[in-house]
Amino acid sequence: MFAFVAFSLRRAWHGFWRNGLMSIAATATMVLMLVLLSGLIILLTGLDATLNYVQQEVQVVAYMKDSATPQDISNLEVSLQEMAQVTQVNYVSKDQAMKDFLARHPDEADVIGSLSTNPLPASLQINLRDPNDYLDIATFLKSQPAVDRVLNIKNTVDQMVTVIGILRAGGTVTLVVVGLIVLFIIVNTIRLAVVARADEIEIMRLVGASDAFIRWPFIFEGAFVGLLGAAITIGLLFVGQGPLTGFLSDYFKVLPVEASATVGRNVALIVLGTGVGIGVLGSYLSVRSYLIR
Amino acid sequence: MAMVTAAPSGSKSSPHRRPGATDQAPDGLIPNRIVLAMQGVTKSYPNGREALHGVDLTIPEGDFVFLVGPSGAGKSTVIKLLIRDELPTKGVVLLDGRDLGRLKRRDVPKIRRKIGIVFQDFKLLPNKTVRDNVGFALEVTGARKRDIEPAVDRVLRVVGLTGQAEQLPGQLSGGEQQRTAIARALVHNPRLFIADEPTGNLDPVISWEIIQLLLRINELGVTVLMATHNAEVVTAVRKRVVALENGRIVRDEVGAAYHRED
After folding, report:
1. 3-class SS letters over A86-135
2. Distance from B251 to chain A by nearest Cα, in Å?
């Protein structure tokens, strides 16, 4: 058994380099696909996390008129808290809103500093037990004189769900297409390796080598392409991690940072599994169609 | 494993390879002393050509048989049936008591280890040394590394290539290349040694050396079947001659010449 594995690995290694250019092409397309895959996973994970965050945190935001007195607001807050549909009410003052804004957009400090008054309204952020109760609450809020405008997070959420759905579908279709191309390239790479070894295979058959001895070196060779592609991809992701996270948190403000460690591990595992899986499948198909007569 | 001796004459052959061992249940009627039995074998190819018709051939253990006949007579088809590259359309091919027509796919490699075969074109791997070419047959059938070297040394001694063990096929003469192929075919300790036109690419003197080697291997107890056009050799050696013509056996004589002598 050990001899068999050693034999297969040695032949796979030689096979990979014997056909170096083609193997490198296969590995490169493998990397391309895996980078796309992991990019899509990271993006979707980030968007999902953002979506969850938004859904959990605030469902209705009511912006106060600047003319509303603290007493008006406080009364409104109390009456909201007494409603059965409401789980939580948070008051965000004009000052707090400005602080939050500056925290998110430090670059805008100059612009803000040049303003004589704070343009941001105070708001009440209301969590609902059931998002579908939104209309009741919104109607109630709109009837209040202190309320300027009601922002329905549900609309934002619905938009995000749509965007995520499109990304997921488009991304999956792209991945499947790229995946098939990778599979095709690997099938051809291994086919070349098989043809290059046609004499050896003939001799192996004649001297009574079992199919496993003929097949497994090629499967290992395909697995090796997958493994190498996955390793390069993970390396690229590792190097690109900083800029990528920065980009994502810039773009999707609220990506929860604590998720990234597990996300990184999951992405690495998926990349590894997909790479080796496609490599093995490609070689299996290639050797199968060649050996079975 | 049983594949380490060069020829079954020595005491090293493991018990299950000895004559008399019957691990082949359905063929109890066939004495195990018979290495090859073809009964009523007909082979038609999908294009309709009938390559063999009603061939009966029995080769007992230790025999030396020349298979002769013009091109297209069916010699190649016989060999393809023996190594189970093809299946008979009708009839039975029994190798060492096993019915090749009813062999499961995964058992085919095992039966091929009972056959050693050499061809006109040697089929050596050019980037491997003589030693590695011979050892390859054991390596790819799962032999342990420490068993390979002594087995290879033994067959290289038999074919007289001990001194060339580390050379590449390209550095060898045609005769030496064929002897390398013979060593590779012997390294599994086969029940039947098949030589398909082994002298086809060799000049007469070298051809004689190869024939002498095959005769010696036969004396060591290996059953030999040699397909050939070489009339001079066949007539001089006076062994059993099986002549094929148009897919039928037209002559089967012991101690015969290449051509009919009556």
Report:
1. EEEEEEECHHHHHHHHHHHCHHHHHHHHCCCCCCCCCEEEEEECCHHHHH
2. 29
